[in-house]
Amino acid sequence: MYIKREIEKEVKTLAREFPIVVLLGPRQSGKTTLSQHLFKNYKYVSLEDFDIRDLAKNDPRKFFEEFPNKVIIDEIQRAPKLFSYLQTHSDKLNKSGQFIITGSQNYLLMKNISQSLAGRVGIATLLPFSYSEINKKIGLDRILYSGFYPRLHTRRIRPHNFYQSYVDTYLERDIRSFANIEQYDVFKKFLIALSGRTGQILNKTSLAAECGISRETISQWLNILEISYVIFRLPSFHKNYKKQIIKSSKIFFYDVGLVCYLLGIKSVEQVKNHYLRGNIFETMVINEFYKNNFNLGKGYNFYHWRDKKGRELDLVFEKGMEKYGVEIKSGQTMRKDFFKNLQYWEKMDNNNKGVLIYDGELEMTKGKKIAYNWRNLGKIL
After folding, report:
1. What structural domains does the chain harbor?
2. Is 83 exposed, middle or buried (0-12, 13-18, 19+ CB in 10 A)?
3. Does pLDDT of 173 surpass 80?
């Protein structure tokens, strides 16, 4: 069963503008399914296939003789030599939309693109389903527990089974292709410790002490998880406020279902009562902003904001001259104190706007009080 993706229009537009479209994103986010759906008359080749990968690595010229144009090349980072040949080949064809390439390792792809394909590539990022792409009848805590990976929803796989396979298969394989991690049990301990810090300021020293490894190893493993689209860092916003701002990044996972699995949550009821439910909810909402941004091709940069007196906002982004500060609360009842930091933010600059995103149904756009239910956060983008 194919579920329509919000990013379809953006990918089609890129294919009209560039000879090569790169579709980035985590494993199992639906890149292959989307590309085959949008480009039905294209030849599909996967570099997960040993024979195809061997040909691409050892004889790139012959590879492009066999697959000269209108080709979907899946997981292209597994044959880096293709990039330079792809440049020459696409220049000869001089047509838009000739190659659709996908990959799940961001750094390697972007490095090769910047070296070989600059100016020839349109880039789109496909994350797991957004809320608007799944069944709207699912309650919040079930969404937090299940997460957003497509196979969970199209094939009704039990979350625990899916994420157990995801961690043991995809993460282990991708990670070992980047670094020589002999003690995978230590790495899994690190993953679990990191999941308990989603939505929090990143403290490598604390994380290293808990896992019994060095800060250098922590840095290396964090980079690997970022490259593989497991986590991302939300940088601090400090424009014009440099003297009083905490500049450390916050850490987030790309999917809340994976967070729940790593935390050992085994049911919807456990999500409801978990002490990290607020962080899990914040992680989901931040991801919804990112998904809307990628799917609609908006191009916003996102930040968090926190000063040395403890005032903070969960998300900040610039929209024209306006700077939006967003407070995220998992409660269903709108409270006066939800707006405390937003009011401070608004007073700092005439161009600052504050928005509350929460789980309640009451929405407001009166004066400086703006509040939306999390399902409608796209209204401010």
Report:
1. 8-125 (3.40.50.300), 131-233+251-276 (no CATH)
2. buried
3. no
